[in-house]
Amino acid sequence: DQSDATKVVVTPKHPHVLKSHSILLKCLSEYDSHLKHSFKLSWRKDGNELPVNSTEDGRIILDRDTLFISSVTLEDQGVYTCVASTSLDSVAAESQLIVLDVPDPPEDLQLSEHQNRSVRLSWKAGATHNSPVNESIVEFEESRLESGRWQELTRVPGNDTTALLSLAPYVDYQFRVVSVNAVGRSQPSKPSLRYATPPAAPDKNPENIRVEASEPNEMVMKWEPLKLMERNGPGLEYKVSWRQQGVEVDWNEETVKKHSLTLRNTPTFVPYEIKVQAVNNLGSGPEPNVTIGYSGEDIPDAAPSVVSVDVMNSTLVKVFWLGIPRDRVRGHLKGYKVSWWKTKSMLDGKRHHPEKHFLTFVGDRNNGMVPGLEPFSEFRLSVAAYNSKGDGPESSPVVFETPEGVPEQPRFLRILNFDKDSVTLSWGLPKRANGHLTGYVLQYQTINETHEIGPLNDISVANHSTLSWRLSGLNSSTKYKFYVKACTVKGCGKPVTEEGLTMAQGSKGSGKNSEAVKPTQKFHPIEALEPGTDYTVRLVTKNWVDNNSIFEDVIETRGRAYAGIYDGISTQGWFIGLMCAIALLTLLLLTICFVRRNKGGKYSVKEKEDLHPDPEAQSIKDEIFGEYSDSDEKPLKGSLQSVNGDIKATESADSLVDYGEGEHGMFNEDGSFIGAYSGSKEKGSVESTGSSTATFPLHA
Asked: Per the database record, which ranges form the Ig-like domain (predicted)?
């Protein structure tokens, strides 16, 4: 059979790699399957075969069809060849690896064309490492002022290798060059020879001349000093010239080394013409420009005049004034400040401690609006001018009054009594009436859970002293929203609101008043309430003039399940029968005991029992009576009649009335009895001690 020819390709074919990065070359091959036992791959660089094992500490790794180079160096650049061979043929494929890097530093710096303010610098470019130079940066260092600090002087575009440098006077220069390509900057070149320029007079004067005045009758002139490279020579100083604008003709002069000058005893806030010129040992700078500055400010010494007030409404006024003359401002006018204070209420005539309020109006103006005043009140108001030093004197106060306004909302709204078709509302006075109250407006409407509302109904209460009202003609079992607004001649204020549900048809909603409660009482019982019913309990003063409650709360009485235990247990037949059975059994046991004792003759009970022990009787005695003392013998002898009488007394003491409904009977939350026998301890009454030994003192 005819064999297929072997084919091979290396990817990538023309890789460009940055120095210190990595590259992976892959050899893709095809060969006849019959020749696979004789097929082999090998790699060469620039014609020399690369060893199969790793080289240079694993930086270059060969793995059959791949070649990996990490931390690529400039020496790795070249032609890499993959050779695929079988027993019949051999083919090769190449990849051209190009390594990119920053340029090498420029070399051989030369100075020429020496002038007082310029020099030409030339150099030779270093290797570009497959990326052309697109810019060169010229840096300088000067030994006289900032030795060792390199600063950028200029940039040369493209691959030019010469530049004419503009220089400043009185500087000892040294130059170096940095080349730049697409990869980055080269290392700087070695420095050039030094070149010192001769000194000269200043080329410029200080900038940003200003006046800062902290005190009246003082003026501080300041400016930005020249930079080191702008001094041009030794002995730099500043010549300051000034004169009062429009008053002085001749200039005052003073030369200083620092960059400020303070003048004292100047007139308050007057304009000055100011000049500052740079001077050194070789001469003066150019003629300086004139700057206008003002001497120190003081607070204004005059008050605005012709102050008047226009009342716009019950809470807003407009103030007018005549501004102070400019020469009385004694500074830069910042604006005017209006101050006002309330002197009394027109409603009750009470004088008020003056609490001043202020409002500032910026700029040179003659009017302003003052909002937020209290209605129906008397005020005083004054105006003052102010500058950056402070406020001037205030004008004479003017008096004005604000008219009545609408009241604030009532303090509260309460629903006192709900019936099926009526309700009683009680409300409080507004916090601020803002005038004479003329009455109240009551409004109400139906509402429901779907936020639908019915029409609004209005009722006017013309008596301003009325603080409660009964609304009738309402629908039963209906939720209502109620509104109450206080009113003056100016109108009605915001309403206070409350919601409530009328009672169902046929339900009782009437209220009751108890007898008077003494001030010293700490509690008061309320009787004859319906079980399972909501009640509003209210404690009010006896005359109840102001409709305000001392205490108010809503309670719910217990339902019939609780009430049945408490009210009906004493009338239940089974309970009465049980009590009767217990009483008869007790009587029978007592009778048996006394009969047995009488059979003993003259012996005491104890002696007889010791002589003729009766196990049954002993058992009964221990179970019922416990243990007798010797002092019990005599009273028991022949006392059957007394016992019968005492039993009747005990029955009376155990009457169900005493712990069923009596005042001392008590029940738990679940209706269980927790009280004690409450009958009086008469002769023969039974008293339980709660111990295992029970004693029954029976008296003849």
From this structure: 6-98
Fold of 308-402: Immunoglobulin-like (2.60.40)
Residue 458's alpha-carbon distances to 417, 442, 445, 629, in angstroms, are 20, 6, 9, 87
> What's the confidence (pLDDT) of residue 659?
30
Q: How confident is the model at residue 61 (pLDDT cuts 50, 70, 90)?
A: confident
Sorted by where each begins, the domain ranges of the chain are 7-100, 107-197, 210-294, 308-402, 410-502
Q: Which residues contact 599 (CB under 8 A, 6 or more apart)?
A: none
Residue 609 sits at φ, ψ, to 5 deg, of -70, -35
Task: Report how far residue 124's alpha carbon sits from residue 110's, in angstroms, rounded to the nearest whole number.
Answer: 9
Per-residue CA distances from 384 to 353, 356, 601, 690 (Å)? 22, 14, 124, 91
Measured over the CA atoms of residue 679, residue 683, residue 684 and residue 686, the dihedral's sign is positive
Task: Return the CATH architecture of domain 107-197.
Answer: Sandwich (2.60)
Length in residues, the chain: 700
Same fold, 7-100 and 210-294: yes
pLDDT (tens digit, 9 = 90+) per residue, 506-532?
555 455 556 666 666 666 777 656 676
Task: Give the containing element (helix H, strand E) for 566.
Answer: helix 560-568
CA neighbor of 468 nearest in space, from 440, 447, 490, 493 = 440
Which value, in Å, is the radius of gyration of the alpha carbons in the chain? 58
pLDDT of residue 37: 84
Sheet order of strands, 135-142 included: 151-157, 135-142, 172-180, 195-196
Q: Is 443 helix (H, G, I), strand (E, B) or coil?
A: strand
- In which residue are the tokens 């900032």 written? 146
Residue with tokens 């607004």: 485
Q: How far apart are CA 469 and CA 540, in angstroms?
A: 17
Residue entry with tokens 């920053």: 102
227 in helix, strand or coil?
Answer: coil
Q: What is the pLDDT of residue 170?
A: 93
- Is the distance from CB of 667 to CB of 673 less than 8 angstroms? yes
Residue whose token pair is 């420009």: 289
Report whether pLDDT(663) > 60.
no
Structure tokens at 202: 């200043």
- For 285-363, list the strands marked E by DSSP: 291-294, 305-311, 317-322, 333-345, 357-362
**Domain 410-502, what fold?**
Immunoglobulin-like (2.60.40)
**How many C-beta neighbours within 10 Å does residue 681 have?**
10
CA distance linking residue 25 with residue 140, whole number of Å: 46
Whether the pLDDT of residue 533 is over 70: the answer is no
SS3 content of the chain, % helix, strand, coil (to 5): 15, 40, 50
Interior angle at CA 475, CA 471 and CA 476, nearest 5: 110
Which residues, at least 6 apart from 466, have a Cβ–Cβ distance to it below 8 Å? 439, 440
The amino acid at residue 581 is A
Enter the CATH code of domain 7-100. 2.60.40.10
Mean pLDDT score, 285-313: 95
- DSSP labels, 341-399: EEEEETTT--B-----EEEEEESS-SEEEE--PPSSEEEEEEEEEEETTEE-PPPPPEE
CATH among 2.60.40.10, 3.60.150.10, 2.40.37.10, 3.30.590.10 for 210-294? 2.60.40.10
Cis-peptide, bond into residue 495, ω within 30° of zero:
no
- 252-255: long-range contacts, CB 8 A cutoff, minimum separation 24: 255/279
Whole-number Å distance between alpha carbons of 407 and 327: 48
Strand order through the sheet with 107-112: 107-112, 118-124, 162-166
Q: Is the pTM of this model over 0.70?
A: no
Write down the pLDDT at residue 615. 41
